[in-house]
Amino acid sequence: MTQRPLGAQISHMLKDRGVDVIFGIPGVHNQEMYRGIEEAGIAHVLARHEQGAGFMADGYARATGRPGVAYVITGPGLCNIMTPMGQAYSDSVPMLVISSCLDETAAKRGQLHQMKDQEGAARTVCDWSETARTAEAAYGLIDRAFKECQTGRKRPKSIIAPIALLEARAPIFPVQAGRPERVSSSLDVEGEVLSCLQNAKKPLFIFGGGAVGAMMFCRDALTKLGAASFTTYAARGLVGADYPLDFGSSLARPSSADVIAQADVVVAVGSELAEVDLWRDALGHRSQLIRVDTDPEMLSDRHGADIAVFADASDFMQSLGEALVDYQHSSDWSSTSVADQRATWRAEIDTERPGIVPVADALKEALPPDTMIYSDMTQFAYAAKEFYPMDHPGHWHHPYGFGTLGYALPAAIGGCIGRKQGETYAPTIAIAGDYGFQYTIQELAVAVELELPLLIIIWDNGKLGEIEDSMVRAQIAPNAVVQRNPDFCKLAEAYGAASAAPRDLAAFQLAVKDALAAKGPTIIHVKSDIALTSS
User: Fold this and answer.
1) Cβ–Cβ < 8 Å for 498, 481
2) Is the full-model pTM beyond 0.85?
3) For residue 226, is it left (φ>0), alpha (ψ between -120 and 50) or beta?
């Protein structure tokens, strides 16, 4: 068939470009996009709110590395998904949001779902937002979105199509062009970069989320150079806790600046070195700073790179390793000192947030190594992401930059769907606070509907604990930080999910194992004093 309504053609084109699942909610304005979904062989996941659909697409993208695709309606549908789009933008997650729009708004008022500037609104939270006025433009924008996700920094895109255009018959989409190569430069690590590293007595690498794909090359280069390392939260597991010179994901510890100041060359690979990585303005380095990134903005930011390398992290680390063939250097870093520093930071976390460290340790013991974790903005995650040892990089996802509540549950649903192999789902869990969980609690229905073996841990301290702590530090009398919670186990039952409310760590571990073996989702309601109860 060469002629179909454009809405149907779009679904067929997405299938041709490798899309196998779409998250969204149909409405009278975007129903033409649903005409071709089943015919194209694409699975559709019906979210209970567009925000949930967006977080599911985000979670799917993080789990698979492929763009998450969402269909939403004009106006409120687009507005509702803007929060997930903002989260995906800040965390460099590939997402494609396709929405309908009104055919004409300049001279006509009072229409259903009317906005003053839908395209402009979306543009504030994504890489780009464009309205397709022809079928050819729609096809070109779709290919542009996928190609940019393959070659550059992965970020969400918004494509908007007028209702009449979606309904109109359109020619078939063009044949897919060859897959473009990823962005890289011709690397000459034999030059200044290699000289700096080989002459250094205390080289230090900082790996960010953009370096996750370089895992197979990082450990080799670090070992040859005798280099120490940090990872941002997004890159945890990249180096491995068994590497004796790895300081872990403790950049946010204030004293990490003192450690960084000891280095005589610092190499930051695939990291923004953003506020949410450091929680301070200055990195703390006193030596040369080498930045490696595919985003030119990162190479000229406030940290002041002495050497800027525009390159893909994998290309750079592979080239560096090849340039260091037969090279073995013993640096002045001490593995004993590194271990002592990590132990100090762990003790600080345990003191600052009592009761979380033993529960996180118990969780680690109970989970299989290939478990993928999605966490919300909750104190449990704030603590655990600093010390929880990861077996694989890219297996703990968190709303780092934008910091949106309600992320964990729908994102974990998307991740669980993306990790299905045949009839088997790889172990996937969500960790949310008692307050944040209620932002997107309705998406539990999706997990029940699809019989996803999803483990959902609710960390319950009965309040907005982080906000209360912040108010106290600011000498503000805590206000509006305590809420009345529902009975989470009965709520799970109402949705058709299983539940458990363990009272000690042994029961908690047993509940975790049972949940991973269940058919369908399980809520585990954990009181924040469970570690004290266990002792």
Assistant:
1) no
2) yes
3) left
